[in-house]
Structure formats: structure tokens, C-alpha cells
Design a protein that fits this description.
binds NADP nicotinamide-adenine-dinucleotide phosphate; five-stranded parallel β-sheet; 2 domains; Rossmann fold; alpha/beta; 302 residues
Length: 302
């Protein structure tokens, strides 16, 4: 795409191969009149940032979740928004299964055990748990939730899910009509719902208690979906068995207490972070921008 003069990049363009297409602005400290299109990844665009760019007409996100964008203000101002669904689904689902296996087989801890030279001194480490033969519950059977369910099949005795209504795509799986009912049933609960106010704290203290001392929580959705202090307290005193986490409430900061726990596997929000997928996300951003500047229908509007 030729470099349009009225385009800005809000943050992290290099991760998506997008550094060549426009100027980088920190809209919190830099007003940008004349800019009509913005590209943003994880940090999003809030109302104050839209205020700083009074001519803005398009926000092209290089993420699928748009919980960090003030969608209401954008709609009121006639600003179109696009995201990058589908192209990242496989990677995020792969990571969810990877975390499930890592937590059960204690892969991060085993790696550290070898690196620290403890094997010859202490002999083999404590036994891990089986990754297969579990009831796997998926919270949110959207695009990523469905991809997780397909991958989970060889590991699961049964697969269950919660969505606000039973979904046609879930007819092979067991439906539970609340997050609590799903957690009471599941051995492993994998969180795959959207973020934002509608799902904040959906994995509540009660849901965590229901999952229990033998239960595992996997979160590849958003940190806001889980009551993080309740999760950490339960992991610390054994009321929750284990957790595999790609996302946190206040990224990039991870609570100190979580870092000290043995029963967790931690990943720094890497769900879509492969070269292949980031290239595909960058291309979709460019295709949406090209459509916008050509006055054509946007490919993936939200
Ligand atoms: P999607 O197809 O839109 O699915 C969203 C799911 O969230 C649906 O199952 C939907 O349930 C559920 N949901 C939405 N609002 C809800 C509410 N208020 N209460 C209960 N459930 C609600 O999206 P997707 O492509 O699968 O992506 C899902 C999320 O994964 C994204 O929004 C993003 O936050 C996260 N994600 C994380 C990474 C990462 O790097 N870790 C990467 C990509 C995406 P219904 O069936 O009831 O509508």
C-alpha cells in the first residue's frame, strides 16, 4: 500500500511489520489534527486519544479483542473500527493447550530443575499430573473457544462449555448454563471469552472455589475476566490446584505473589505472537486500511 499522508501508528508497529506505513504518535501527549486513520495493537484508543485526533475516521486494530477501545465514543463520532479475527485463532488455541500440558506436566518447573543442576544432586523431581483424561470446560465458545475444543478432544473424557446461550457449534459438547455450573463440572477450565465490562470478574471467587484443589484454570482471554486476587489466594493455600496464564489484570505487571508460586505456568501475553500470525494480522490491518482509503467496504469491521 502506498504510504498515506494521514495515517498514524499508536504503538508497537514493529511487532506487526507495520513500521513502514505511517508516523508513530503517543496520543496522550501529542495532539494529532489532520490524522484520519490510526493503527493500534494492545493499548487501544480511548476517548481522550480520539479527542487528540479530531479528524480521525478509522481505527485499524491489530488485535481481535477491542476491550481497550472506547467503541461508544467512536460510534458517536462516526469512526470506523476494524480488528483481526480468525487469523490468530489457531495460535491462541495452541497456546491454551500448551499451557494445559505445561501446568499438568510442570514443564517450566522441570526445565528449571535441569538448568539449576538439581537432577544429579536430588534425583528425579516430584511426580507431575496427567494432562489427559480430564473433563475440560471452555468458558466462551467463540472462534478461539471452538478451536480449543477441537484441540482438546484427544485430552478430554468430556468437553463442556458455557456461552450465554447454547450454540449450534457446541452440539457435540455438554452445555452448562453458568460459569459456576461449568466450574463445578470441570477439571480444567479454559477461559476464552471477550474482555471488557461485560465479562469482568466472570471467573469469580465462587467459580474458583468450585474448580477446587484438584482443578486447573487456564486463561488466554483477558486478565480482567478473572478475579486475580481471589485466584492468587486460592492458588497459595491450595483451594485451587494450578493455573496457566497468558494474560493478567495489570499487564505488563504481574503480582509478586504469583511469581513465587510453584503451581503456575506464566506467559507474557503471547497468544498470537508467532511470526506467521503477526504477519497475517499486519496484512489484514493493511487490507482494511487500503479498503478504507479506497472507499470500499472494510474487511473485518467490528
Ligand atoms: P469471539 O468469537 O467474538 O468469541 C467471544 C466469546 O466471548 C463468545 O463465546 C461470547 O459468548 C463470549 N462473550 C462475549 N461477551 C460475553 C459476556 N458478556 N458474557 C459471557 N460471554 C461473553 O472472539 P474470539 O476471536 O474467540 O476471541 C475471544 C477473546 O480472546 C478476545 O476477545 C480476546 O480478548 C482474547 N484473545 C486473547 C489473545 C491472547 O494473546 N492471549 C489473542 C487473541 C484473542 P456468546 O457465545 O455468549 O456470545
Amino acid at each position: 500500500m502506498p504510504k498515506p499522508p494521514l495515517l498514524m501508528l499508536v504503538e508497537q508497529p514493529d511487532l506487526f511489520g507495520l513500521h513502514h506505513i505511517g508516523e508513530h504518535y503517543d496520543l496522550r501527549s501529542q495532539p494529532a489534527p489532520g490524522i484520519v486513520a490510526a493503527v493500534s495493537s494492545g493499548n487501544g484508543v480511548d476517548a481522550a486519544m480520539m479527542e487528540a485526533a479530531p479528524d480521525l475516521k478509522m481505527i485499524a486494530l491489530s488485535v481481535v479483542g477491542y476491550d481497550k477501545v472506547d467503541v461508544e465514543t467512536a460510534r458517536a463520532r462516526g469512526i470506523a473500527i476494524t480488528n483481526t479475527p480468525d487469523v490468530l485463532t489457531d495460535d491462541v488455541a495452541d497456546l491454551a493447550i500448551g499451557l494445559m500440558i505445561s501446568v499438568a506436566r510442570r514443564l517450566p518447573q522441570q526445565d528449571l530443575f535441569v538448568r539449576e543442576g538439581r537432577w544429579p544432586l536430588e534425583g528425579p523431581p516430584a511426580l507431575a499430573r496427567r494432562a489427559s483424561g480430564r473433563r475440560i470446560g471452555i468458558l466462551g465458545l467463540g472462534r478461539i473457544g471452538q478451536a480449543i475444543a477441537r484441540r482438546a478432544q484427544p485430552f478430554a473424557t468430556e468437553i463442556g462449555y458455557y456461552s450465554r446461550q447454547p450454540r449450534a457449534e457446541g452440539k457435540e459438547y455438554i452445555y452448562r448454563d453458568s460459569p459456576l455450573a461449568l466450574a463445578e463440572w470441570a477439571d480444567v477450565l479454559i477461559v476464552a471469552v471477550s474482555g471488557g465490562p461485560g465479562t469482568a470478574g466472570l471467573v469469580s471467587h465462587a467459580v474458583i472455589e468450585a474448580l477446587g484443589p484438584d482443578g486447573t484454570l487456564i486463561n488466554i482471554a483477558r486478565g480482567s475476566v478473572v478475579d486475580e486476587p481471589a485466584m492468587i489466594a486460592a492458588l497459595t493455600d491450595g483451594r485451587l490446584g494450578a493455573a496457566g496464564l497468558d494474560v493478567f489484570a495489570h499487564e505488563p505487571n504481574v503480582p509478586e505473589a504469583l511469581l513465587r508460586l510453584e503451581n503456575v505456568a506464566l506467559v507474557p501475553h503471547q497468544g498470537s505472537a508467532t511470526r506467521e500470525t503477526r504477519a497475517a494480522m499486519g496484512k489484514l490491518v493493511l487490507d482494511n486500511l487500503a479498503a478504507f482509503f479506497a472507499g470500499k467496504p472494510l474487511l473485518t469491521p467490528i
